[in-house]
Specification:
With 234 residues, the chain is mainly α. 71% of the residues lie in helices and 7% in strands. The strands form 2 sheets. A 3-stranded antiparallel β-sheet has the order 1-3-2. The longest helix is centred in the last third of the chain and has 34 residues. The protein is elongated, with a radius of gyration of 20 Å.
Length: 234
């Protein structure tokens, strides 16, 4: 029993390191995860690595391909555009309703969520290529607070589900699509101010621009990755 527990702990540790390397862009989208290379890099056995990769597959970070093994989930332009369009259509609808229907408690919750987001470091300590887990949680909480004033719980659940689905792409926006001049904090303040001003159209426009901006950065990154891959093949 002790050995099993130790193995599970080792698998958790390796999985956490692999997850961090994927989210930071050190393991790029589409990268083939070969056991001999992983064993050397992470000092882990094949069985430990397999357990870790299966869990990462469940989280959507890794894909298992028949007869090919595991790869880092590719950055799909088609899926990203579809997801972006779905989010823009539905999230702006829910946000408009939230701004109109939200009560004083909603306002207070929103202000508190923004305060936490604004005070949380964006990148991980010692690794400016990885979004800090605390910031990611605060970011999710702020956007959930924005939408939470909507009285239609079914619409709200669907909108939040789409946001969860986009998490991997958002994490990749730092190492792959980083734009040094982007005022991300300003975008969030604009969302907060429009919501508190009870201006549903301004809030929806700010959210649309916010979501599309990240998508455009990632699509540009995908083009660079393809170009680098083509040059490597020559």
């Amino acid at each position: 029993m002790v050995a099993t527990g130790g193995k599970q702990t080792r698998s958790d540790d390796v999985g956490a390191r692999l997850r961090a390397d994927i989210l930071s862009g050190r393991l790029l989208p589409g990268y083939r995860l070969k056991f001999p290379v992983l064993s050397a890099n992470y000092d882990a056995s094949v069985s430990v690595l397999r357990e870790a990769l299966v869990r990462l597959t469940e989280q959507g970070l890794v894909r298992s391909e028949p007869h090919q093994g595991f790869v880092v989930t590719p950055l799909s332009r088609e899926k990203l555009w579809e997801l972006t369009e779905a989010r823009v259509e539905l999230e702006t609808l829910v946000l408009r309703r939230s701004v109109v229907e939200g009560d004083l408690s909603w306002e207070s919750h929103l202000v508190a969520a923004h305060h936490t987001l604004e005070r949380t470091p964006y990148t991980a300590e010692g690794d400016d290529q990885r979004v800090d887990d605390g910031w990611a949680a605060a970011h999710a909480a702020f956007h959930e607070a924005l939408l939470s004033g909507c009285g239609n719980q079914r619409l709200l659940r669907i909108a939040l589900g789409l946001r969860d689905e986009a998490e991997l792409y958002r994490r990749w926006s730092q190492p792959l699509g980083d734009e040094p001049g982007r005022d991300l904090a300003g975008e969030h303040r604009a969302l907060l101010e429009a919501a508190l001003a009870r201006d549903p159209e301004a809030a929806a426009a700010a959210l649309c621009a916010h979501v599309r901006h990240t998508t455009e950065l990632l699509l540009a990154a995908a083009d660079r990755l393809d170009h680098d891959h083509s040059e490597a093949q020559e």
